[in-house]
């Protein structure tokens, strides 16, 4: 055996194997590696987009929560203002009703006073007639005395 022939045979087999590997094995392996690298890059990009989206969503949710709190505070303030307004309206209504009751009571008191004065006037007139009748029992002209008593009654 010749060392040179074996060496040339091994070199030839090596080059055939290298050519076969480069022609048929290497492209699918490189394609798989490229696809894997592409998937990893896409995954990293998606993760970055997801992180950015998460940050944006967190900011947006914080803004929504703040707006909700502001709106809730505004609604509470409006409700308190409306409650105060309703209380003032109720007080005003109660004052008006109290004034009506007081005015009605005053009118009733005035009517009662007029009625009592009239009743008292009638009673005084009756007493005056009774007194005059006792004094003037001897006189006979009742009509003249009635006119005088009516004039006295009007003066009272």
How would you summarize the topology of this molecule?
Elements: H1 3-135, H2 142-155
Give an overview in words.
This protein has one domain. It is built from 2 helices and no strands. The termini are far apart. The relative contact order is 0.03. By secondary structure, the protein is mainly α. The protein has helices at residues 3-135, 142-155. Helix 1 (3-135) packs antiparallel against helix 2. The radius of gyration is 61 Å and the shape is rod-shaped.
Keywords:
156 residues; mainly alpha
Overview in brief:
This protein is an all-alpha fold and 156 residues long. It has one domain (10-155). Helices cover 94% and strands 0% of the residues.
Question: Can you give the helix content as a percent range?
Answer: over 70%
How many H/I helical runs? 2
Class inferred from helices and paired strands: mainly alpha
Q: Characterize the main sheet.
A: none
Distance between the termini: 173 Å
| Beta-strand content estimate | under 5%
Run of helices and strands: HH
Number of DSSP strand runs: 0
Shape label: rod-shaped
Uncertain parts: none
Q: Taking all residues together, what is the mean pLDDT?
A: 86
- Please give the radius of gyration in angstroms: 61 Å
- Total count of domains: 1
